[in-house]
From TrEMBL:
Native organism: Photobacterium leiognathi
PANTHER family in alphabetical order: COA BINDING DOMAIN CONTAINING PROTEIN (PTHR42793), PEPTIDYL-LYSINE N-ACETYLTRANSFERASE PATZ (PTHR42793:SF1)
Segments passing through the bilayer: none
Signal peptide (from-to): none
UniProt name for this protein: GNAT family N-acetyltransferase
Pfam families (UniProt xref): Acetyltransf_1, ATP-grasp_5, CoA_binding_2, Ligase_CoA_2, Succ_CoA_lig
Domain N-acetyltransferase per the UniProt entry, residue ranges: 744-907
Domain of life according to the entry: Bacteria
InterPro entries: Acyl_CoA_acyltransferase, ATP_grasp_subdomain_1, CoA-bd, GNAT_dom, Ligase_CoA_dom, NAD(P)-bd_dom_sf, Succ_CoA_lig_flav_dom, Succinyl-CoA_synth-like
Length: 912
């Protein structure tokens, strides 16, 4: 992390390529450093000048009088490989590269040589890694750290001090945001232009900034992500304690292509980015207008308690527009209590609206505004309040704003709510909006932008709730993974890569899917014979490895009711193949009995291999013009029941699927269960590259796969690394035996374990909990329990010791598991060391469970390649201290601080 510290907390800076020419980046950076009043040494490097902007310059890097923490490289692209090597030899640990064009492919000097010639960017990065140097860029605008008075950028605009960090891949977006923020008096803790992000990326910055005391919220402008696994892991961790908003460009295919040209990143589906952002607990905004509104809201708002919005206005029309915008975005209008209505009626004209929106009438003066707002603040009828004002001679813009600001500052309950304002108009209204902003209340020019800002907070709250929701366990006992692998291996051994329904059916049935029986016929006569046996009506479908899309030649014929119809249909299919694909191989036909479709709905579910996020699940309605960019809801595996439900609800809300009133409604839990099965199938079977289920016949809770195709390929890599989120690591499951002979299952914790974990904690004594947490924790709420059970297996591990079927639930009369102990290891983002903790039920001491859990943790940390395990306990926790000493931990008792530090090296010095 030395490079990150040198980057974000530099005490000295060198500018390579400094210039006295005001049109050069090297001059702009020097002037920005001086105008920002950076307190550390600024060392220009240039062979052209003795001094730059009055500062003594050095002819080369080697002649610098000290090793700078940070270098800003302002030279041409072709010089930067050598410059980075010189900086590395000097000992510099962080550098910002401004030059563009370094990721362009290099032409080989020998035209007959076909080997890959690394780009300048690749050569530069290799040099940086050789010296453990970290790089920002290339194609970066630079870095601004207002709290350090540091402006190491070539931006024409500086940044004020504030609590928002902004990270962008686009320099142009940076300057636009800075210009707007200056006007709005909004400040930043960190302002960084990543450029092409060849080295330091969003993930590392999220890991660092989420621990920064000066940062309350983080904004990201993303063209593309290179390491989806690392990005999502960092985002999920950061989103638990910082508000994170994302503006992702490339929403269209054309925009994605432009983003690829801009930063060189892979082109992924925009809908998959959308799913990744939601899954990580972040919030996406769709354009710079929304981003501006979101920044303003973040700068002044507190977390929402709920989603109810109250609207106070002196004009009915603008309020109606606000309500329309709220309804369009799925927001909730607060309902006023009778007590609030009565109090408002006592001070408002009789013709006021008597409901929300609260229309206090066009002749409202400043006093009426104050009275109405005070009554609302005294109530608990809402969570957010939008105060609207249309130009009025009775309640002038500026005077009304000042009076309300004074009243809001004095009211003791103001900070309980989110207050937003909409002062319509220009001139004086603009001054009033600025007055609100400076007073700490976000101000918007239109009703729609105010509602958009409020809904950003609502959607963020919903994403955070999704991040913490406890799923219902459905178990995986009906999954026959071994048999599925045997089926796939046999197909691959026979060089079969594309599977049609009859070939995919045995694999799907291993995971509990209901499929239609399918028979193979070689000709029309055999098709007729099969149809007579299984009963009419039937469907016949072409089998040809050379024709992937049967619809191209009408290779599927449905609802055949007689032998004559079957014979004619088969012959017609063969004739069309002979006409359009005369050389195509024909492997006969598939014959299926027609499913009963009365009252049923047809859906389509695909597994798509995204170039950035790996396997993703797509769902929509089955139609001939299926477009994954437009028609599909998207989810990233692994899925549990809660995440699958979010996918289904999102698909319903966005119209990707519809609950059709004439049909039997979709059973949402049943559909969620099927999605979880698909998720587990593609996790367990990495050989599956694509899966298409269309249609899936849905009739209430009956879900039947009518037609499916699957693409498979041999797989030899790490099956988990291809996924954007590490799934449940089943490989760590094992059984263990206690001293009393009791057999337990030792396994990683699951999100579904929250109820078990709550019961477990209730069985630990107050004294033991105090030793574990260093304080009285009382009863843990849902949010705390969710943090214990919903972990990121890439960064954290928790093993639970479970007694299977050890308890009878009196309500359901079913056997339940019991958690008897838990061991945790939380590693740093660099996978260098891990902090551990162990807790055993107070009535289970003395049976050897603590030793079993400790050994499990040590072995896990060694497998992860960690170098150290550390822990902290209290001097009175003799059992923990003895256990740690027994395993080999060094013990450092610090009586003055009342703590005991434990340290275990996991690798030999000679190995390191």
């Amino acid at each position: 992390m030395d490079g990150m510290r040198s980057l974000l907390k530099p005490k000295s800076i060198t500018v390579i390529g400094a210039s006295d020419n005001p049109l050069r980046a090297g001059n702009v950076v020097i002037r920005n450093l001086l105008s920002g009043q950076f307190r550390g040494p600024i060392m220009p490097v240039t062979p052209k000048y003795d001094a730059v902007a009055g500062i003594l310059a050095y002819p080369d890097i080697a002649s610098l009088p000290r090793v700078p923490d940070l270098a800003v490289v302002c030279t041409r692209a072709e010089l930067n490989v050598d410059i980075v090597e010189q900086l590395g030899r000097k000992g510099v640990k962080a550098a910002i590269i401004l030059a563009a064009g370094m990721n362009n492919p290099q032409l080989h000097t020998n035209p007959f040589c076909q080997s890959h010639q690394p780009s300048l960017e690749e050569q530069m990065l290799a040099k940086a890694k050789e010296y453990d140097m970290r790089l920002i860029g290339p194609n970066s605008m630079g870095l601004i750290l207002p709290w350090l008075n540091l402006n190491a950028s070539f931006s024409p605009i500086s940044a004020n001090k504030g609590k928002i960090a902004f990270i962008s891949q686009s320099a142009a977006v940076c300057t636009t945001i800075l210009d707007w923020a200056k006007n709005k008096s909004i400040g930043f803790s960190t302002f960084l232009s990543l450029g092409d992000a060849c080295d330091i990326n969003f993930a590392e910055l999220l890991d660092t900034l989420c621990q920064d005391s000066k940062t309350d919220a983080i904004l990201l402008y993303i063209d593309s992500v290179k390491d989806a696994r690392r990005f999502m892991s960092a985002a999920r961790a950061a989103a638990r304690n910082r508000r994170i908003l994302v503006l992702k460009s490339g929403r269209t295919q054309a925009g994605s292509s432009a983003a690829h040209l801009h930063t060189g990143g892979d082109i992924g589906l925009d809908a998959v980015y959308d799913a990744a952002i939601r899954r990580s607990g972040m919030l996406r905004v769709n354009n710079t207008h929304e981003l501006f509104a979101a920044v303003e809201t973040l700068a002044h708002s507190v977390p929402l308690r709920g989603e109810r919005l109250a609207i106070l206005t002196n004009g009915g029309g603008p309020a109606i527009m606000a309500v329309d915008a709220l309804s369009d975005r799925g927001g909730k209008l607060a309902k006023l209590s009778q007590e609030t209505i009565n109090r408002l009626s006592a001070v408002l004209p009789s013709c006021w609206s008597h409901a929300n929106p609260i229309d206090i009438i066009g002749d409202a003066d400043i006093h009426r505004y104050q009275q109405a707002v005070k009554i609302l603040l005294d109530s608990d009828d809402f969570d957010g309040l939008l105060i609207m004002h249309s130009p009025s001679a009775i309640a002038p813009d500026i005077e009304t704003a000042n009076a309300l600001i004074e009243m809001l500052h004095q009211h003791p309950r103001t900070k309980r709510f989110n207050i937003l304002t909409n002062w319509a108009g220009e001139n004086e209204a603009n001054i009033a909006r600025k007055t609100f902003t400076e007073a700490g209340y976000p101000a918007y020019r239109t009703p729609e932008s105010a509602i958009s800002a409020f809904m950003h907070m609502v959607e963020y709250r919903r994403n955070q709730k999704q991040l913490m929701e406890t799923p219902v366990s459905i178990g995986y006992s009906n999954h026959n993974t071994h048999q599925a692998h045997e089926q796939i291996t046999e197909l691959l051994d026979n060089n079969i890569r594309h599977l049609e329904t009859h070939e995919a059916r045995p694999i799907l049935e291993c995971y509990g899917f209901t499929t239609l029986p399918t028979w193979i016929a070689l000709d029309a006569a055999e098709a007729v014979h099969i149809a007579e046996q299984i009963g009419y009506p039937v469907a016949v479908k072409l089998r040809s490895p050379d024709i992937r899309h049967k619809s191209e030649i009408h290779g599927v014929v449905l609802h055949l009711r007689t032998a004559n119809e079957v014979e004619n249909a088969v012959q017609a299919i063969f004739d069309r193949v002979a006409m359009h694909y005369p050389t195509a191989r024909i492997d006969g036909l598939l014959v299926q009995r027609m499913a009963d479709r009365s009252g049923a709905q047809e859906l389509r579910i695909d597994v798509h291999n995204d170039p950035i996020f790996g396997p993703v699940i797509l769902m929509g309605e089955d139609n001939a013009r299926w477009d994954i960019h437009r028609d599909a809801a998207v989810a990233i595996p692994p899925l549990n029941m809660a995440l699958a439900r979010y996918m289904v609800i999102n698909a319903l809300k966005t119209g990707k699927i519809k609950q059709r009133s004439a049909l039997e409604k979709i059973d949402i839990p049943a559909l969620c269960g099927l999605l979880v099965k698909i998720s587990q199938l593609i996790i367990d079977c990495p050989e599956i590259k694509a899966l298409n289920i269309h249609p899936l016949l849905v009739s209430g809770s009956d879900l039947t796969v009518l037609d499916a195709s699957m693409d498979i390929e041999p797989f030899t890599g790490d099956k988990q690394k291809r996924l954007a989120i590490r799934p449940y690591p089943k490989e760590y499951e094992e059984t263990c035996t206690l001293k009393d002979g009791q057999t337990l299952l030792l396994r990683p914790i699951l999100p579904e374990d929250e109820p078990l974990h709550k019961t477990f904690m209730s069985k630990v004594s107050v004294e033991d909990l105090y030793k574990r947490f260093f304080s009285d924790i009382g009863e843990l709420n849902h949010e705390a329990l969710a943090k214990f059970t919903q972990i990121d297996y890439d960064r954290e591990m928790a093993f639970v010791a479970v007694a299977k079927d050890a308890h009878i639930n009196l309500e359901s009369n079913e056997k339940e598991d019991i958690v008897l102990g838990v061991a945790r290891a939380l590693s740093d983002p660099e996978n260098h060391d891990a902090e551990f903790a162990i807790l055993v039920r107070s009535d289970m001491k003395g049976l050897g469970l603590g030793s079993i859990l400790m050994n499990k943790l040590v072995n896990y940390c060694k497998l992860r390649g960690l170098q150290f395990m550390t822990g902290m306990t209290m001097p009175s926790n003799h059992g923990m201290i003895h256990l740690a000493e027994k395993v080999g931990f060094s013990i450092d008792i610090q009586l003055e601080d009342g703590i005991v530090e434990m340290l275990l090296p996991l690798i030999d010095k000679k190995d390191s």
